[in-house]
Protein: Uroporphyrinogen decarboxylase
Amino acid sequence: MLLCLSAPSAVAHTLLNDTFLRALLRQPTDYTPIWLMRQAGRYLPEYNATRARAGSFLGLAKNPDYATEVTLQPLERYPLDAAILFSDILTIPDAMGLGLNFVQGEGPRFERTVRTEADVARLAVPDIDVTLRYVTDAVSQIRRALTDAEGRQKIPLIGFSGSPWTLACYMVEGGGSDDHRTVKSMAYARPDLMHRILDVNAQSVIAYLNAQIDAGAQAVMIFDTWGGALADGAYQRFSLDYIRKVVAGLKREHDGARVPVITFTKGGGLWLDEIASIGVDAVGLDWTVNLGAARAKVGDRVALQGNIDPSVLFAPPAAIRSEARAVLDSFGNFPGHVFNLGHGISQFTPPEHVAELVDEVHTHSRAIRQKGNA
Structure:
C-alpha cells in the first residue's frame, strides 16, 4: 500500500514499508520490524565476492557503486525492514587526515595518532562535501536503488556515525585496544585535551549525519561502541554529554518527515535512564540487558532496539526461533520495539540461520499483536 501521511512527524509518503520508522516513533505496527547491525558483511559470500573485486575494504567503502551493491545484498536474501548504509565508523578521522588503513588480521589502524597538544591543535572539522562526498553519494545512490520506477521506496535507509568518544578512542590509540589505556589516561590526566578532541568530533558528527540526512538517510544511528569502557561519571562527561550535543544539532525533519535518531552504547545498560533522556528517539541495547525491564524503566519516552545475543545465530534453527520468541515475549505487545542483535553479526554466521531469525521475528510478533488485539 502506498502511504500518504502528510503530518510533519509522519514518515515519508513514498515508503511501501514504513514499519521500522513507525516503531522508532513508538507508533503501533502490525509486527516487530527487524534489521541487523553489520547485516551487509563477511558472513555473506556475495559480499566477499564484491570485496574481492574492490581490492580492499576501503576500496569497497569509498566506491558508491560497490557500497550500494553490498548494502542491497542482504535485502535480496531476507525480508528485512530497513537498509543501512555500508560504510565504516572511522570515516571522520580518516577525513581529518589521520590516514586510515585496515591491516589483515588486526583491524583498523591510523598512520597518525592524536596524543600531543600539537596533534590536538591541528584537529578541525573536515569539509564533508569534499572529504566525505563518497559517503553522501552512496546514500543518494542507495535511495535511488531502493525506489521503483513509480517513485515507491521499498524500505527506509539508515545512515550512521561513530560517537565522539568512540572516534576519539581510535584516534588516540591509533587503532583498536583491549584496555583503552592511552585514551583513558589522557581523559584523566589532560581532560582539557580530551574535551577539545570530543568537541571537534561532535561538530564533525553533526555535520556528517546532517549531510547524510540531506542525501536521503531516513533515520540515523550513533554507534558508541566504546562508551561502556568508561567508569560511571566518566561516561557521562566524555561520552554521553557529547552524544547529547550531537543529537541537539541534528536535523529532525527532512522532506516533511521525521528523521528518528538511535544511539547505541555497548555495555551501556547501567545508564539506560540517562541515555533515554538526551533527546533520541530510540536506544539500542546489548544482550546483557533484560528487554522487558528496560521497557518498564523507560516507558514510552523512547523506543528500544535489540537485543538478542549474536551468538544465538550459531545455534540450530529451533533454538534460534526459541530465543527470538523469548526476546519478543519479554518486550510484550507494546509499540516501540525494533528487533536487532545486541551487537554486530559475526562473520562466521551461517546465512541460512539469519533467514530463520527474520522469519520467526515477523511470524511471532504478528501472533503477539493478534492475540493482544483479540
